[in-house]
Write a structure and sequence with these properties.
alpha+beta; elongated; Arc Repressor Mutant, subunit A; 2 strands
Amino acid sequence: MNDELRFRVLKLITERPDISQRELAEALDLSLGKTNYCVRALIEKGWVKVRNFSSSRHKLGYAYVLTPNGLRAKARVTLDFLRRKQEEYEQLAMELAELRREAARLEIEEGTSR
C-alpha cells in the first residue's frame, strides 16, 4: 500500500469509523479485496482496531478505531502527503510559468511576422 492510499484510508476511517469495507472500497475506487487487504494491513501494523457492535437485531456491524500508534502514523502520513503535494504544486507552478513565457514569446513572434 503506498503512502497516498494509506493516507486516504486512515482519513476515511477517522471521518467515518462505522464505514463498511464496501463503502470504503467505493470511496477509494478500489476492489473490495484490495480494500480488505489495506484494512488488514493497518490492523496488523497496530494502527487500527476493529470493534463489533450490533446495528440491528439481525446484523453485526464494525467500527474502525485508530490506535494511539495509528494516530501518530496518520499525523506522519498526513505531513508526508502534504509535503509531497506541496512539491508537486511548486513543480507545476514552475511548468505553468515556463509555458506562459513560451506562449507570450510565440505571440510576439507571430505578431512580428505579420
